[in-house]
Amino acid sequence: MRRLHLIALLPLAAALGGCNFVVLDPSGDIAAQQRDLLVISTLLMLLIIVPVMALTVFFAWKYRASNTKARYEPEWSHSTQMELVIWSAPLLIIICLGALTWMGTHLLDPYRPLDRIAAGEPVPADTKPLDVEVVALDWKWLFIYPEQGIATVNDLAAPVGRPIRFRITASSVMNAFYVPTLAGMIYAMPGMRTELNAVANAPGESRGFSSNYSGAGFSGMFFRFQALSDADFNAWTSEAKASEERLTRAAYLELERPSENVPARRFADIDPTLFDAILNMCVEPGKMCMKEMMAIDARGGLGLEGVANVLPLTYDKHARRGTVFGGAPSYVVGICTPEELATALTLSAARPASRDTALVRGAGLPLPALSGSLPAFTPISLPSREPRESLLGPRRPSNS
C-alpha cells in the first residue's frame, strides 16, 4: 500500500522538478533584499495562519459529538483574556508588516542610487555606475551602452560588483523589464522613462523577460543576462565593437518593426541621440519631439500665428509606427461645423458629373451655366491684414 502511495506522488514530484526557484536564490544584492522581505513577510503572516489552522483541527477533534467528556457551557459568551489574545497578536503583526513595508519601499526604491554592493560592503566613492538604456520593442529588447558606444538586441551583460543604472522606455505598448536574479520588475512605457538601480554580486548567466503581456510575440520576448568579471566584460564589449552593423535612426526604424523570437544582435556604433529621440517619439524625420511640444505649451502655446510653423510637420499624422495596425496616412485639411458639412455634402451630391468645359472668350461674358438648379453662391473674400489683426488684438510694438 505504501508503494502505491509513493507511486501516486511521483507526478507531483515531477511537476515540482520543473520549478525554478531563482527568486529565492538571486545573485544580486537588490534581489536578495527583496527575497528577504518576501520571506520575512511570509513568516510573520504564518504566525497567525498556523495557530489558527492548528486550533481549528484541535477544537473539531476535542468537541466532537462522540467526546462526552468535553466541557459543555451553553451560557458562555465572553472571555477578556481570549479577546486580548485574538486582537493583540494580529495587531502586533500588522505593525511589524507595516514597518517592514515602509522601510523596504524606501530602501528598495528602484530610482534610489545604490549605497552598497552587498551587506557590509559599501559602494566605493570613485565607482561610476554602468549606464544601460533599455527600449522595449515588439517583441524584443534593445540595450544601448552610451559609455561603450555599442548596442545589443536580446543580450545584456554587466560586470560583477559594479552598480548598474537602467533607463527604461518602450516604443509602442507597455512592457515590464524583469531580471529575477538581479532586481525587481519595473514597467517600460512609451513616452516615459523609468529607472532601475541594481548590482550583480556573482558571475553567472540567467534569463530576463517581459512580465507584462504585450501581444502575439510576448512568449518569446526574453533575453540573456550575463554577470561577468571586468576582463570578460571588456572582451564582450570588444566583441560587440567588432560587429559590422550600425544602429542609425534608419536602422532603428527597421528594427522597431514587430518580429518574434529574434536572435541576439550587436551594433558596433550608435547614434548618441537615439534614446532621447525614442523617448520623445521623434525618431522619424519631420517629427516634433515631445519635449519641444511641452516647452511650447509651457510658454502659452503657439496661437493662431503659429499654425503655419507646425503645418509642415508630420507628427501624429501617421498610424502607429512599426505595426500592422492602422490605415494609410491621413491629414486634416479643414474644420467645419456640422451645418457646413451637411451643406457641402448636399452640394456635392447635386453637382453634375460633367460640365461645359468650353473656353470663355471675351471680356465680361458670364461663366457657362451648370445644368440643374443650385443655390446661389456668394463669393467670400478673405479679410485684409488690418481687420484680421483687429480680431486678434492690437499688434505689439516692435522693440526696434
UniProtKB/TrEMBL annotation:
Q: Which UniProt keywords apply?
A: Cell membrane, Electron transport, Lipoprotein, Membrane, Oxidoreductase, Palmitate, Respiratory chain, Signal, Transmembrane, Transmembrane helix, Transport
Region Disordered: start and end of each range?
Answer: 378-400
Location of the Cytochrome oxidase subunit II copper A binding domain:
127-239
- Extract the signal peptide range: none
Pfam families tied to this protein: COX_ARM
Q: Which InterPro entries match?
A: CcO_II, CcO_II-like_C, COX_ARM, Cupredoxin, CuRO_UO_II, Cyt_c_oxidase_su2_TM_dom, Cyt_c_oxidase_su2_TM_sf, Cyt_o_ubiquinol_oxidase_su2
The transmembrane segments are 37-63, 84-104
Q: Which regions form coiled coils?
A: none
Q: In what way does this protein cross or attach to the membrane?
A: Multi-pass membrane protein
Annotated Cytochrome oxidase subunit II transmembrane region profile domain residues: 15-112
The entry sums up its family as follows: Belongs to the cytochrome c oxidase subunit 2 family.
Q: Which PANTHER family match?
A: CYTOCHROME BO(3) UBIQUINOL OXIDASE SUBUNIT 2, CYTOCHROME C OXIDASE, SUBUNIT II
Designated name of the protein: Ubiquinol oxidase polypeptide II
From which organism does this entry originate? Answer: Ancylobacter moscoviensis
Q: Which gene encodes it?
A: cyoA
